TrEMBL record:
HAMAP family assigned to the protein according to its UniProt record, in alphabetical order: Q_tRNA_Tgt
Domain tRNA-guanine(15) transglycosylase-like: start-end pairs: 14-367
Keyword tRNA processing (UniProt): yes
Primary gene name: tgt
GO biological process, one term: tRNA queuosine(34) biosynthetic process
Organismal lineage: Bacteria, Pseudomonadati, Pseudomonadota, Alphaproteobacteria, Caulobacterales
Source species: Phenylobacterium hankyongense
Pfam families, sorted: TGT
Protein name as catalogued: Queuine tRNA-ribosyltransferase
Principal EC category: transferase
Subunit structure, interactors included: Homodimer. Within each dimer, one monomer is responsible for RNA recognition and catalysis, while the other monomer binds to the replacement base PreQ1.
Enzyme Commission number, as recorded: 2.4.2.29
Length: 371
């Protein structure tokens, strides 16, 4: 069968918990996917990422096509062998990163042309080339269509234009991807914060038919309330029997509220990026270990965790490492944060399975305020 089996084990309101079975292993949903942009989840080994409970990580077409180039990764056996991560990998199509990273870029009907932010070299990314890079050269398990994500806030006419271009590119990506059953292709809903555009985008993607559907165009500055407003209607526009992936989200509270509205998969750089800057996420909210109040705190971040970074090291030691700008500080806090995000997903999956998601949400929000 085209794509991967997605088995929903239980629901609680709009929320679902289940398993997306891929050719490289099962993904427990709701799932948080650590971002491994340049073939590494920054500061962590793949063993630490696996030990944290992650079933899947993300790779990036934009970064890898520029360095070390997709052809070199292919010559070296593909992205899984290159980075020694044998579980599933999802890759983004590159368009979003072109718009946010490359100095000069131009979006045309046929393709996006841009200059590398590394050396100014010129590159072309068409729907067909993005599929070739992801599916054939990197060997990604879940491939994302090439799309155009408009910045927020957007004029409705501009959002409509980008959404319809993305829908035309979706068809071209589906044609280029062809019939594969060991890899999956996801479409990406666009339409910014306009409900009618989101509906038109969803209808066009369903007409084409995808193995999963992403909600794009969010986590681009609209804020938590702005995102939740769209999540009141967008997830339900997408097929209930396929995975729904909210791109680029988010903070723990964002994950909880999006799961409650029917989202199954998430990615965000937050746990690793904030870890590198001394921030630790906890059940009481986020804390910065640079704060002097931790200088003599001999307790670990979470003694109940099975992640060594959370269980074995005192906050005093973490404070010392962060103040001293020691690399180990970045490693341990990134590891702790990835572990915390995975533990949050474990708790969400259990709450949905046991029909107590509303109670979990209330308790989670109450505890987050203390921190
Ligand atoms: N293709 C695409 N990507 C997005 C990302 C990157 C997610 C990503 C995937 C894989 C690796 C890194 C990043 C977004 N991040 C925040 N908001 C986002 C929106 C979009 C979007 O609309 N389309």
């Amino acid at each position: 069968m085209a794509g991967f089996p997605f088995t929903i084990a239980a629901t609680d309101g709009e929320a679902r918990t289940g398993v997306l079975s891929t050719s490289r292993g099962d993904i427990r949903t709701p799932a948080f996917m650590p971002v491994g942009t340049a073939a590494t989840v920054k500061a962590l080994t793949v063993d630490q990422v696996a030990q944290s409970g992650a079933d899947i990580i993300l790779g990036n077409t934009y970064h890898l096509m520029l360095r070390p180039t997709a052809e070199r990764v292919a010559r070296l056996g593909g992205l899984h062998r290159f980075m020694r991560w044998e579980k599933p990998i999802l890759t983004d199509s590159g368009g979003f990163q072109v718009m946010s990273l490359s100095k000069i870029s131009k979006v045309k009907e046929d393709a996006v042309t841009f200059q590398s932010h590394l050396d100014g070299s010129r590159h072309v990314l068409s729907p067909e080339r993005s599929i070739e890079i992801q599916a054939d050269l990197l060997g990604s398990d879940i491939v994302m269509q090439l799309d155009e994500c408009v910045a927020w806030p957007a004029e409705e006419a501009r959002a409509a234009e980008a959404m319809r271009l993305s829908a035309r590119w979706a068809q071209r990506c589906k044609n280029a991807f062809g019939e594969r059953d060991t890899q999956a292709l996801f479409g990406i809903q666009q339409g910014s914060t306009f409900e009618a555009l989101r509906r038109e985008s969803a209808d066009r993607l369903i007409e084409i038919g995808f193995d999963g559907y992403a909600i794009g165009g969010l986590a681009v500055g609209e804020g938590h309330e702005g995102m939740v407003e769209v999540l009141e209607y967008a997830p339900a526009m997408l097929p209930a029997d396929r995975p729904r992936y909210l791109m680029g989200v988010g903070k723990p509270i964002d994950l909880v509220e999006a799961v409650a509205r029917g989202v199954d998969m998430f990615d965000c750089v937050l746990p690793t990026r904030s870890g590198r800057h001394g921030q630790a996420w906890t059940w009481e909210g986020s804390v910065n270990l640079k704060n002097a109040r931790f200088a003599d705190d001999d307790e670990p971040l979470d003694p109940t965790s099975d992640v060594p970074a959370s269980r074995d090291y005192s906050k005093a030691y973490l404070h010392h490492l962060v103040k001293s700008e020691e690399i180990l500080g970045q490693v341990l806090l990134s590891w702790h944060n990835i572990g915390f995000f995975q533990t949050l997903m474990v708790q969400l999956r259990a709450a949905i399975a046991e029909g107590r998601l509303d109670a979990f949400r209330r308790e989670f929000k109450a505890r987050q305020r203390i921190g």
